[in-house]
Structure formats: C-alpha cells, structure tokens
Design goal:
Elements: E1 2-3, E2 10-14, H1 21-31, E3 45-46, H2 52-61, H3 76-100, E4 105-108, H4 111-118, H5 122-138, E5 144-145, E6 148-153, H6 156-166, H7 176-192, E7 196-200, H8 206-223
Parallel strand pairs: 1-5, 2-4, 2-6, 3-4, 6-7
C-alpha cells in the first residue's frame, strides 16, 4: 500500500450493512453541493462497482451466478480475487485518473472491506493485504490507501435489526455470525491501519442522523479543505 501521491483526496465511507453508511453517503453528497469550489467526483462511487466484475460479485453473493457457488466450487479466498480484480479496474480507470486531475474521490466502501470481511486476525489481515499488493503490482496499478476512512460503527445486533427492517434480501455476507465478526473487525482495522476514524452510528431517527453526519464531518471536511463549523 502507498500513500496517495496525487492532488485529489481519496475518502472512503465504510461500515457493515445496516450501519447507515449509504444514508450518510447521500447526506454528504448533498451537503457538498454548498461548496462549489470543492471539486468532487459525482455521483459518488462505490465498491463493488457496477462494472462486469462487480455485477458478477453481486450475482455470486445472491446465489444467482450460473457458474460459481460460494462455499461449493468457490472458496472465500478465490472469491476475494473477484473483488480485487474489480477494484484494480476501478483504480485504473476511475480513481487514479480522477485523483491525478486534482478532483477528490469519495467512495462507499473500498479495499478496507476486503480486510474486515476476509480476515479474523492480524496475520490474516496482513495476508489479505499481501494478496492485494501482489495482484495490483501484476497489473502495474498502485494500491493507494485512502487519505481518510470513516467507519460508521454499530453493534451487530443493530445492524441485523436494521437489515431485517429493510426487508431487503440478504446476501451471503449478511448472516448474523458474519455481521458480528465484521463489526468487530472494523474496530480492529481502525486501531491497526492509518487514517481510520470511528463514528458512533448507533443513534436512530432524523435528528440522530444529523448528529452522526456532524461527527463524521469533523474528519471529512478538513481533508477536503473545508473548515468545519
């Protein structure tokens, strides 16, 4: 991994499904319209992407793929490589050219999600990063670590309750055991890796969402060159 060498800033909003990350992403995108001098790639991007590999990842997770079945003829480690290939394409064609041009990039999830979903221990985290670095190097694409990763922190119980309430069909990563492990791993990531900030996303209702946004804004705005209120 390398620090971002480009003039544009790279920010990732992260968190387990049910953390409210997507709501906060939309709130941030709306808020930044009041700062026209701050150049930000719009619409905000996300990973997995909507490209061919990203769409296939979603099909595999939903058990809709006609060739691969997670846990049957596709291991977790092999599946991780789909995410990495999707990300390499994203870095090469969208993220790096945008950062080079001086435009800021804000992304919903990024490579940090591979670490927390794929590992359980510090050594496993390191192994996942090593695989990323190897595959990125083979593609001659730098693996840039974000200037800021905001992690919306909730308990696994809150995440599961919100997912149940949404009535959305759960994918292979959204079972209770995995959600409990991932919420814990995000906290470990924040302690172990640079530029990570935890934001308490437990509170609910419209007023609480504003408070969560205010808490995250204190980290996001300075990176973008905006003086926080």
């Amino acid at each position: 991994m390398v620090n971002n060498p480009y003039p544009g800033k790279f920010i990732v909003l992260a968190g387990v499904d049910g953390s409210g990350k997507d709501t906060q992403l939309r709130r941030l995108e709306n808020a930044l319209t009041f700062f026209p001098k701050v150049k930000v790639l719009r619409p905000f991007i996300k990973e997995p992407t909507d490209g061919p590999i990203g769409r296939r990842i979603r099909d595999i997770l939903a058990n809709h793929d006609k060739e691969f079945y997670l846990g049957q003829n596709l291991t977790d480690a092999e599946f991780q490589k789909f995410f990495i290939r999707d990300s390499i394409d994203h870095y090469q064609n969208v993220i790096i050219p945008t950062l080079k041009s001086g435009i800021n990039v804000i992304c919903g999830r990024g490579r940090e999600s591979a670490i927390v979903y794929g590992g359980n221990t510090i050594s496993e985290f390191k192994n996942i990063v090593d695989v990323h670095e190897e595959m990125f190097a083979e593609a001659n694409v730098p693996l840039i670590w974000p200037d800021l990763i905001v992690i919306y922190d909730v308990t696994s119980e809150t995440a599961m309750r919100r997912m149940d309430a949404s009535k959305k069909e759960k994918d292979a990563f959204e079972n209770e055991l995995k959600v409990r492990r991932v919420t814990s791993n995000y906290r470990a990531l924040a302690a172990l890796y640079p530029n990570c900030q935890l934001v308490d996303a437990e509170p609910e209702n419209e007023e609480s969402e504003k408070t969560i946004f205010t808490d995250a804004r204190q980290y996001i705005y300075p990176v973008l060159g905006i003086e926080p209120k």
